[in-house]
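Appendix B. One record, verbatim.
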Amino acid sequence: IELENTIDENTLIGFSLTANYEILHALPAMKLCKETFSNKIILGGCSATTCYEFILSNYHDYVDAVCLGAGELTWKEIVENFQNNSIDYTAVHNLAYWENSRIIQTPIQKPLNFDEIPPINFEPLKGTLEKYNSIAFNTSRGCAWHCEFCQEKKLYPQFSSRSVDKVRADLINLQKVTNHRLLMLSDPLFG
């Protein structure tokens, strides 16, 4: 495994599941990571949020916790509480984990307004984006509607959008690191 040289006891491993079928592809990788490194594995994304009970009930041997909803604040709390391959889950909001044969869920914290997030620094991705057919880009999160079938409300309970200035700054920063010509606006609403 190429990762053996970069993963040590101070490494958190995260998987983002944006569609339900991705769990089928992520499970072998999670199992391999857990068996090879025994590091903490945290899941996030739409599917992890909507299916966390199923995931933790059936795959708690490979998944240590699931981030529920938007992950910016939760991941920050995870990193702040991570020491010696251990996390105090009770100090982290928006998290579900398996303990004593049951699922524990920490208190839910309101997500950041999307415009509160500073312009994105894409510099760490320089040279890696060209291998993708397109780049997904969001200018908003959440939805004003309350459709029963949609998972958007579970992730982002309120609609929020980036200001024109922040979107412009993000696009300029993105343009600095790639010559990619296909940008896919993946907003749940075009608002």
